[in-house]
Design brief:
Number of strands: 8
Largest sheet: 3 strands, mixed
Shape: globular
Helix content: 40-55%
């Protein structure tokens, strides 16, 4: 099992983030990786519902991509790429400035990067509309910026190691496009309608909603900010989960 793509990606993370400003990466001892689940057919990966960076605990909780009931990953290279994306993403959460205050005995986050908050912890930034193609919500901007950097690094590793997708269809093929930032608007339109009745369906639906609410909107806003004309993308009319998770 070849883990060199992760180590090469780690070197890219160190060089890139040093240029951006963070002086220290998220310590590996602060990263917990789940590899098994008590839920039948549970799927791990970036879009697992219970994973993510915990600001107060200064700890990243991630899961290995794939079937968490299998004895080992079915597509090991994709599992490695997903872990690289997770780590690169959470390093920027870890490295972003955060301030906290006590309010009625509770710890309230008053700043995360450029996302400042009111005394009660609510963001000054208004949530985006459900049909928005771009975003001005600072929470979404922070999340989108983190994932843009993480997926760009993962894509460089893919090119350096010649890692190819597992066909053009199926969850592994879609996950490959997701982890490398290659999802299309047609992909997203299908993913958000997958349904949440099964573990696989829930994972794919979460992937589609994250791409629609975070990455796609951030990409349009970023291109506008640097003076590029964004490409027209398909509007998704199907019901989607609220983007409150990233807009808070």
């Amino acid at each position: 099992m070849d883990v060199s793509p992760f180590h090469d990606g780690l070197a890219l993370v160190q060089a890139r983030y040093a240029a951006l400003g963070p002086r220290q990466l998220l310590p590996m001892e602060r990263v917990l990786v789940g590899v098994r689940s008590v839920r039948p057919c549970a799927r791990g990966g970036f879009h697992h519902p219970n994973q993510g960076y915990r600001h107060l605990q200064i700890r990243a909780l991630v899961t290995a991509y794939g079937d968490l009931g299998a004895p080992e990953p079915r597509v090991f290279a994709l599992t490695v790429l997903d872990l690289l994306r997770c780590y690169a993403h959470d390093c920027l959460h870890y490295g972003s400035c955060r301030t906290y205050r006590l309010r009625d005995g509770d710890v309230v986050r008053s700043q995360y990067g450029v996302n400042f908050r009111r005394a009660d912890g609510r963001s000054y930034s208004a949530p985006g509309r459900a049909d928005a193609r771009s975003t001005r919500n600072i929470g979404t901007v922070m999340e989108g910026a983190c994932d843009r950097e993480a997926r760009a690094i993962t894509w460089r590793v893919v090119n350096a190691h010649g890692i190819a997708p597992s066909g053009d269809t199926g969850i592994d093929a879609v996950a490959y496009r997701d982890v490398t930032g290659q999802l299309t608007s047609n992909d997203v339109a299908r993913l958000v309608d997958t349904g949440t009745e099964t573990e696989t369906g829930a994972y794919l639906t979460s992937m589609g909603r994250y791409e629609a609410h975070v990455n796609a909107r951030y990409r349009v806003s970023w291109k506008r900010s640097v003076g590029q004309r964004p490409k027209t993308s398909t509007q998704w009319s199907s019901p989607r989960r609220s983007a409150e998770t990233w807009q808070r």
